[in-house]
Amino acid sequence: MSLVVSNKETAPVLGLADEYGIEKMVIGRQSFYETEELLPALRERNITLIVLAGFLWLLPDYLVRAYDKRMINIHPALLPKYGGKGMYGMHVHRAVKAAGDRVSGITIHYVNEHYDEGGIVFQASCPLLPEDEPEDIARKVQELEHRHFAPVVEKLVRELEETTQQTNNQ
To answer: Residue 71: phi, psi to the nearest 5?
Structure first.
């Protein structure tokens, strides 16, 4: 089953959820951190993998524990470089440009209790030219995100389904 969860009522992904008939839920910061209201909603829907995209809050311990190695995020750089609190979007691309890096890319990683420190699931890189500006870097990185994120998510879902099936057959 699927569920789209957002912390912003105006998030474009909620419109996509409507378009595809996917159930959606908007969460508030206080309830997200001070209660475990999200966890029963995920369990009721048999959610086996949480995929974060554009979600900037640090995940609470209860959620990290419940979805250990079953929650991933995508980061617009080759971690461990340019990760951590405040390193998202154009902040990352400006830092890459300022450092004069000749390569950037994406990292899909497991989520743990720290920003961008979970185990790496997948990385892809792209070459950068000296004249590339942060906007150029962002475009190149976004192309990698569009090319690789969905196939990696699909692979992880299949692996989880196989593991669940094997467990149920024992």
So the answer is: -140, 125
pTM for the structure as a whole? 0.92
Angle, CA of 49, 57 and 72, to the nearest 5°: 25
Write down the number of H helices and E strands in the chain.
Answer: 6, 6
Distance of alpha carbon 83 from alpha carbon 78, whole angstroms: 9
CATH 3.40.50.170 corresponds to the domain 52-169: yes
Q: Return d(Cα 68, Cα 110) in angstroms, integer.
A: 8
For the chain, what is the mean pLDDT?
94
- The domain ranges of the chain are 1-47, 52-169
d(CA 147, CA 20): 21
Tell me how crowded residue 166 is: count the other CB atoms within 10 A of its CB: 9
If pLDDT is split at 50, 70 and 90, which confidence band does 1 have? Answer: low
Which of 75, 91, 114, 148 does the annotation list as catalytic?
75
Q: Is 148 annotated in the active site?
A: no
